[in-house]
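Feature request, filed as a ticket because there's no other form

It would be nice if the structure record came with a short human-readable summary line next to the tokens. Right now we just get the raw output. Example of a typical job, pasted below so the devs can see what we mean:
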Amino acid sequence: MAKIRAAITGVSGYVPDYVLTNQELEKMVDTTDEWITTRTGIKERRILKGKDQGASVLGIEAIRELLEKTGTDPLEVELLICATVTGDMHFPDTANLIAYATGLKNAYTFDLGAACSGFLFALTTGSQFISAGTHKKVIVVGADKMSAITDYTDRATCILFGDGAGAVLLEPSMEYGIMDHELHSDGQGQAYLYMRGGGSLHPPSAETLANKEHFIYQDGKPVFKAAVSGMSEVVTRVMARNGLTRETVSWLVPHQANMRIIQTVASMAEFPMDKVMVNIHRYGNTTAATLPLCLRDWENQLQPGDNIILTAFGGGFTWGALYLKWAYSSLK
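Raw output as currently delivered:
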């Protein structure tokens, strides 16, 4: 009996209108456009401005576009998973807020936090409900307002992050879809990439605010080393397990954290850069939104049966790779 797989049958994305350029950052911290571009590959990032604008706003816009593009009745969606580390509130879940605003009245919802690996972990989770035969329509959205937890006086981190969201619709298929995945986590990473304040260990206080503990902290060198080794190794294993070669894989889709990381992972996994999706120059690191935003930007180049490898690495540490066969052509 053929196995039911979870196929991506639609993809969408949303980024805010406001563009934060390297030239603007030059006026905020001791940096230059050349320094940022050389070290990160980023030229600009999008920032969500205005009052009462949380990560849910990004996810709402992405899902509205997804429902319209795919002609999906919101009442037919059974599950919504939101990957985020910048939810509107500790509770209710941001997925709950997104579902309410987009009319997903029959869907149950939950958030999933795995930092920059969040979308990869959420996509894998959502696919299991399709493969089990219990669900027909599942939406996975990655949405992060990273500007809310970025210290714009810290030149090491403020140049990296942007705001955005990306979403996919999962439906059953006997031919296409998610074929394999491998996910990992290692708590030793907490020392190198974290936000210290705001949780139950260090709840908000005058002291945590004064110490800037509600912003991202990153120790770049150990993160770089762990990211390039983790992603390249898991990509190589997933490909070997499925008899894939660099010639038979159409696209490698890496988390958009830093251009040097992307290039190093591609080199270690022996992928030519012309088969690697890159849009970090336009959006920066949008955390859980980077992978679906890449798929959205390349959607018109994808054809049914294309072999695609997604890979990500995030704080914790968390990392992994996923192999899927693309299910549709968006060209009319």
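Something like this underneath would help us a lot:
The longest helix spans residues 220-241.
Residues 5-175 form a domain with the Peroxisomal Thiolase; Chain A, domain 1 fold (CATH 3.40.47.10).
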